[in-house]
Specification:
Layout: H1 6-15, E1 21-25, H2 32-46, E2 54-58, H3 70-82, E3 88-93, H4 101-108, E4 114-119, H5 128-133, E5 138-142, H6 148-151, H7 159-169, H8 181-203, H9 209-221, H10 229-240, H11 246-258, E6 262-269, E7 274-284, H12 287-293, H13 301-315, E8 319-331, E9 334-348, E10 351-358, H14 364-375, E11 382-387, E12 394-395, E13 401-404, H15 405-410
Helix pairs in contact: 1-2, 3-4, 7-12, 8-12, 10-11
Length: 417
């Protein structure tokens, strides 16, 4: 099965020859190399670019190890370009393996005949120093695992069957070649344990490997729940009888984010228009890896659905916060401020959407619970509830929009109907 990855290919095409280094980022095994070496390569050839004008190197390949030397890499590219005329396209995978790779890329930018594309998948590649060096000279394109709509490409199975597979096994493209649940589970556990977890521990020189393992389990078990490093540290002390400081927890969470395993959504006071420090929600970038971290226990569809909605919004280019809405209530003749929550405040340019993830709204009490925060928002941005049921989208008398999760995942324009 070949996935078209149209969202990312379109971004590469629109960034072509823009004078910037195209920096392709994302977690391991999410399809960055295939995007560059196959999909984008084929596009270039189809657009008339000669094969000898495409310079490709996989720097994690033993056969390319000599080019991890920066001077040899630059000499090789200079030699290739000197042989012909016109534009050359340089595609370097896992470029962080090159010593002084920032200097190498800056050197390549001095040659106007080169259009440069690079990929990397760890914290060293996107360290603060690298981002600073490339400010104004780099064009980052973030690649995610398959979205649900991509996962459905080319399959004759019904959406409900595909959904069950997707929320258990996630969207790593390689899974499409594997038959049977046992093989998929084995693959995901190996990827998580050997490619993600082991890399995080070894790259960052972590001494408390067990502490990191416990942290991942805590975050995996509590997707969609507000937490913070201090609370996690206290949980370790009281439940696991393990002493890990909140500063260490914060550091470990940073390593997980740098590896593209998780992301954090901050709390945002919608009426006060400011961020509220402290608690965040953490979401996993791929549900298969999340489930592998828990040995495929705790497959609660409602929490997983919320995580998938978050990922879909991020794939579409939204920044996503957790909304906090204050409401004054009367309690024993005293006024008390109560805080309501909006699962997602999604922003992109002038657009904003308030979104609730509601697995089911099968009672009036449940409906009121989901709509309570919306009723206390006095702006005109669209307010949306995404439910698990496969329903016909509809507006109610308050202007609140209710849609099924399949319509949301399969149609990027569904909010604008």
């Amino acid at each position: 099965m070949i996935y078209k990855r149209k969202r990312y290919l379109d971004k590469l095409v629109s960034s072509r020859e823009n004078g910037l280094v195209k920096i392709i980022t994302g977690g391991r095994r999410c399809g960055k190399s295939f995007l560059l070496f196959h999909l984008f390569h084929d596009y270039l050839v189809g657009d008339g670019v000669s094969e000898d004008h495409i310079i490709e190197l996989s720097l994690d390949d033993r056969r390319s190890s000599e080019f991890r030397d920066p001077d040899k890499l630059l000499a090789y590219i200079d030699e290739r370009v000197a042989e012909g005329s016109g534009k050359y396209y340089v595609i370097l995978d896992e470029v962080q393996l090159v010593k002084d790779f920032v200097e190498v890329l800056l050197s390549l930018m001095h040659n106007s005949r080169l259009d440069v594309y690079v990929s990397g998948s760890n914290s060293r590649f996107l360290s603060k120093d690298v981002v600073t060096e490339f400010r104004g000279r780099g064009d980052e394109i973030r690649v995610w695992p398959l979205s649900f709509s991509e996962y459905c490409e080319g399959s004759d199975a019904d959406r409900t069957t595909l959904w069950r597979e997707y929320y258990v096994y996630g969207g790593l493209p390689q899974l499409s070649l594997m038959k049977g649940s046992d093989r998929k589970i084995e693959y995901l556990k190996n990827i998580y344990e050997l490619t993600y977890f082991r890399d995080i521990v070894e790259r960052n020189g972590l001494r408390n490997e067990n502490g990191m393992e416990q942290l991942v389990e805590v975050l995996s078990s509590s997707i969609g729940s507000l937490t913070n490093p201090l609370r996690i540290s206290n949980t370790f002390k009281s439940v696991a009888k393990m002493a890990i400081s909140h500063n260490t927890i914060r550091e470990y969470i940073g390593h997980l984010q740098d590896s593209y395993l998780i992301e954090g959504a901050q709390r945002y006071d919608v009426k006060g228009r400011k961020y509220i420090g402290g608690e965040q929600k953490y979401y996993f970038m791929d549900m298969g890896l999340r489930n592998a971290a828990l040995n495929f226990r705790q497959l609660e569809e409602n929490h997983i659905m919320e995580n998938i909605i978050y990922n879909e919004l991020r794939m579409r280019g939204f920044t996503v916060d957790v909304g906090a809405v204050s409401k004054w209530m009367k309690d024993d003749d005293k006024r008390k401020r109560n805080s309501l929550e909006v699962d997602f405040v999604a922003n992109m340019g002038y657009k904003r959407y308030y979104i609730q993830s509601a697995f089911s709204m099968d009672s009036e009490a449940k409906r009121e619970q989901e709509f309570a925060s919306f009723r206390n928002l006095d702006d005109s941005f669209k307010k949306i509830v995404v439910v698990r049921d496969d329903i016909v989208p509809y507006y109610d008398e308050n202007g609140f929009y209710t849609i099924g999760v399949f319509d949301f995942l399969m149609n990027e324009g569904i909010f604008d109907v």
